[in-house]
Amino acid sequence: MTDTTGAGPEPAGGGTVLEVTGLHRAFGSVQAVHDVSFSLARGGSLGIVGESGSGKTTTARIVVGLERADAGRVMVCGRDRSGQPGRGRTQRLERAREVQMVFQDPFLSLDPRVSVGNVLREALRLHFPETRVDHARRVGELLDQVGLGSREAAALPRQLSGGQRQRVAIARALAVKPAVLVLDEAVAALDVSVQAQILNLLADIRRDTGIGYLFITHDLGVVRCVTDDVVVMRHGRVVEAGPTADVLADPRHAYTRLLLDSVPRPGWNPKHIAAARRAL
Amino acid sequence: MTIALVRRPGLARIRTRGSWLYLLCLGFLAVVVLLALLAPWLSPHDPNAVDLGNALAGPSAAHPLGVDGSGRDTASRLITGARTSLLGPLGVVLFSTVAGVIVGTAAGWRGGWLDSLLSRTTELVFAFPGLLLAILIVSIYGEGLIAPVIALGMAYLPYVSRLTRSLVLAERERPFVEAYQVQGHSGLQICLRHVLPNIAPVVLAQSTVNFGYALIDLAGLSFLGLGVPALTPDWGRMVFDGESAIQAGYPLCAILPCAAIVLTVVAFNVVGERWADRVARRDR
């Protein structure tokens, strides 16, 4: 694989590519995100876990810029991106190159009318207009990187399977060469064997490119598989944070234990989980 | 999708049972459009050549559809009249579609105060019957095709803009729009390249239905003597001119343009509704 390093701008200093401090966001009277802070090392992988409504998706959307925070800061490569997004083209493209996102549902995150090749060409035309002649080669390279062939380049999204579509979405995000890739439940809509393929693919891409991952998921198996560090969120607050292996092996917060116990396995009793949840 | 096209109840009852009706209507429209395009070569006589000695003559070898009260050949006038009769509604539909899509997209995409302003303004137009608006404008600017076309275009604009707005609102919520925003595309680019092409089939189906209504409205204006200038061949004008012929017991030169108007309007409705149904059934 060539020309896949040099992802995004160099960090101002140290090994932190993404730093989130004191994030707050309320929807009406509901405090969706309350004082959330975490940081992501360059080339690292951070998981945010929690059940539905724990505020993890809102946090991700604030990081990407699809949602505005009431308070707090999001720094990417030493630049603050939590303020009002600029309206200028340069600023817009700069923000896009800082953080890219892979959405949950690959059936909805691609325009049904645009072929795979054109999806990638659009991104390249927008971000690298000066290397226009190079785009055909780059499209092939990106498809190759996510394990798709030239046969898929001409296909429309509806002609592809869920796993293939998610690969397209990943390629589209990589085309921009972001510093951070936010994956919002990126494998939740796929079946288990395809999940494993995509997770392996993501691990390979991280090793090759050094892009930092922010993994939003409710699936502890995914967290174990692809993240170095993990943040556990509940009711909009961070209840536990630390290296993934430590947190999963020795959870200190009752909620983390509950999440771990909630994973179905032999001898698993949902009534106990419900009782523990009520007690919490 | 819960978005329905605006259909007037009278004509909406004509349902397409099989595809034969649709094909028949499509064929009929193709013939009418061809006749209009090739009118100078196809019309057997000068549509304005007056022959008073031959007035109100029945069908003959020289005049297969007879002549009117001034001795003008009905067949030639029908064929040449197709031009103005189709050109007017085309202008109405083009104006209302382009302006309506711009207004509806701006309102749906931006939302907020702009949405309120544009939506309330276009709803105000609903309060005016289109024909009344057209008569008002014609009475100010005098006869001619441009004034009634713009007036009716204004009157039809809210139908298109309301439909576009609701479609854009639904489209804006689709995750791929957010994906393009994250990629750094501007709102205008996303609208032009992704939102509009996705909603275009529905809007065009509505415009096709509108074409039929605009045709009937313009024919009505011509019949009232307000639309096209007196000598221009036009179906609505022909019905108006044929009044005296009907009183003289010779209705052919008035009935034929009536039939042409009705058939064309029905054909546009059937085709437009068929397209709308097809779009609604299309898997995305």
From TrEMBL, chain A:
It comes from the Bacteria. Transmembrane segments: none annotated. GO terms for molecular function: ATP binding. Residues 18-260 form the ABC transporter domain. CDD domains: ABC_NikE_OppD_transporters (cd03257). Coiled coil: none annotated. Keywords: ATP-binding, Nucleotide-binding, Transport. Belongs to the ABC transporter superfamily. This is ATP-binding cassette domain-containing protein. It comes from Streptantibioticus parmotrematis.
From TrEMBL, chain B:
It comes from Streptantibioticus parmotrematis. The keyword Transmembrane applies. Residues 82-271 form the ABC transmembrane type-1 domain. Keywords: Cell membrane, Membrane, Transmembrane, Transmembrane helix, Transport. Belongs to the binding-protein-dependent transport system permease family. It is found in: Cell membrane. Gene3D superfamilies: MetI-like (1.10.3720.10). Coiled coil: none annotated. InterPro entries: BP-dependent_transpt_permease, MetI-like, MetI-like_sf, OppC_N. It is a multi-pass membrane protein. This is ABC transporter permease. CDD domains: TM_PBP2. The chain crosses the membrane at residues 20-42, 86-109, 121-140, 146-164, 211-228, 248-272. Its main location: membrane. It comes from the Bacteria. It holds the Pfam family BPD_transp_1.
